[in-house]
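Help! Submission page says 'invalid entity' but I think these are all valid:
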Amino acid sequence: MTKEELQSAIRRAVHQVRETCPLVPSITNMVTMSLVANAQLAAGGSAAMINLPDEGETMAAAGSAMYVNLGTMLPVYAETLPRTVRALKVNGHPWVLDPVGIGMGALRMELFRGFRELTPTIVRGNASEIIALANLWQLKTGLLQDGVRGVDATDSVQAAGPAAQALAKWIGGAVAVSGEQDLVTDGETTLLCQGGSELFTKITGAGCSLGGVTAVYAAVADPLVAALTAVQLYNYAGSQAEQLSRGPGSFEMVLRDTIYHAAAEAIAAQPFEQQEEQS
Amino acid sequence: MTKEELQSAIRRAVHQVRETCPLVPSITNMVTMSLVANAQLAAGGSAAMINLPDEGETMAAAGSAMYVNLGTMLPVYAETLPRTVRALKVNGHPWVLDPVGIGMGALRMELFRGFRELTPTIVRGNASEIIALANLWQLKTGLLQDGVRGVDATDSVQAAGPAAQALAKWIGGAVAVSGEQDLVTDGETTLLCQGGSELFTKITGAGCSLGGVTAVYAAVADPLVAALTAVQLYNYAGSQAEQLSRGPGSFEMVLRDTIYHAAAEAIAAQPFEQQEEQS
Amino acid sequence: MTKEELQSAIRRAVHQVRETCPLVPSITNMVTMSLVANAQLAAGGSAAMINLPDEGETMAAAGSAMYVNLGTMLPVYAETLPRTVRALKVNGHPWVLDPVGIGMGALRMELFRGFRELTPTIVRGNASEIIALANLWQLKTGLLQDGVRGVDATDSVQAAGPAAQALAKWIGGAVAVSGEQDLVTDGETTLLCQGGSELFTKITGAGCSLGGVTAVYAAVADPLVAALTAVQLYNYAGSQAEQLSRGPGSFEMVLRDTIYHAAAEAIAAQPFEQQEEQS
């Protein structure tokens, strides 16, 4: 797709969500549940958070897409996650995985390993998480493999490019890497997106809620467009909110206001460019 | 009661809560716990959220009233809910049930079925939830019974009137139905309340926190007055907040500010009227 | 230490946190998780909340300090808390305990009893909680012991002084008592701190987030200085936020903004004094 075609697809996704209000349930961490739901509502979707296995199956069928974030673990997830993801597959519904906390915890790691075959449609994380997930799944990334890496935020988004592309190809979907600039790829087309705010790192749930909103767009658009639309929305709303706020508290408030009001044109016009082929 | 008597009772409930700061514990969903507690505090009550069975019993005895919302389920609720509600009965303490998520999940449905005999004092939900609960309990509503219905927000408040009245009579308490206008009934007197804001649907926890505040007023007033006072407060504060805000983020902030400052007179003066007898 | 030395240590702690961004994980209650994390981020730290035993051990090793608050209990805590606290001891990492809800629940009380030997580095609570914990641990406080007391907020901060000093000596750390004025002690030096706002009682999580921020400073300073710095920060930010807000909603927002921007000098200059020796 050309840049103009992508921008047109972004505008379409924004409008379609606002018109159809898709139900996008989540299994997501307790810390940021509220912001995830609020961001999904502000973007025009409908939210529902669940913990139990049979409710996961019900919601996998009832929802148009789903968001999974293992930031805080509960013992019951051992059963809930596999059953829910299998139900998503049976129903052919897209889902977004946030590999937060990768590297920590036996149950969390077992679930992440299982998602190698029960693949998500979109993965959204920071550079270190994306590299760690590609390594965990033993994908060929062209990077030196030094075992599973712990979570840190020190890897640059560009450095995670090969891992993101390998992941995207493996899942047959899209990967979004969050950082100072953001990278979105489906394994073929790779886009670099500008904007956002340093204050995203001073509120809890910026990444989680971006993932939740990505799932909302996945209900109406293909994986690359869904991931790109959410990243563009957050880059636009973050830039706006930074100008209109005085710190992390007001930033979060204005962010929600701006997500609600953001014009589809402004979201599509937020700067992004196709990455040059690297040899 | 005449409208003037109801308004006088509303003002009394508002003042009494602010003077006595009743402790109103909750078993409530994780997504909106924070807003429920904050709304209860802003209205003048005291909040405490619990999960475990023995703590439910302790709080059922220690609190003046309780709020139960099964929006997100935990396995331990299978034991916590029946024990807590029985302790509420033993202590003669009122409690408010929010039938959110009715139609989904084996444990949730088992608990909802159990509440047919372990009746709440007040039920607060949207039209579809109220109809679904009345059907689940097989109450005579005059409506065609087509089995238990899933949750949707498409039923109008007026359509839920017969179900609300049947529920109120069954529990010997009051039922509040939230929607564009709100309906409050004790099975005999039925009131239609105006106000609020479309933005209530763009934040998570508007209904939950209304339920939590209803429980705060139930600590000091009879069921009909408690339900009516909370609905009036939210209709007033929602209207005010919409005028003073720029989207869902600032709306939630101003809502909390307004609940805190709302004059008893303004809450009582928010428009409501008695529904004409229907034949 | 003289007052000037304490003020200098406060300024150092504030700067060091902002420069090093220490990771300070929490096992903390669901109601206020989000505000705890947001306050820790605003102060300059890094947050992570966990529930499971092996993740507690991992985080006890990986973090620079930890925050424990049993406001809402989960069954898995029976295993998570002892294993996590033992790992904190093995790693020599400081941790802050908030004795919220003391007096209620078999599991909660069993855990609180266990902390008598697996001692925290800092305890932060209101007057009644501090007295209840000293009594539970059967420390000599010079107060009449009438058994373990339930939680109430009626005891004055000054009345809790002997209990706080006995606790601080027992743990070999520091204790902070929150109230209209705040008391911070390491058992030898006792400080009384002024400021804050009545609105702290009208939002949920003021005390919890103060505890979380205390743990952030414990990552870089000794217990007395860490507890004092957090109390001073909250007294300063609370006073500022009250002036700039219109109720509890805007108060919470401005509080986060102010924590983020607060100058080290202003935090150190917030009024406090050493308590005269009592005979």
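Support: the input was valid. A stray whitespace character was the problem, and the output above is from the cleaned input. Chain A has one domain: 3-274.
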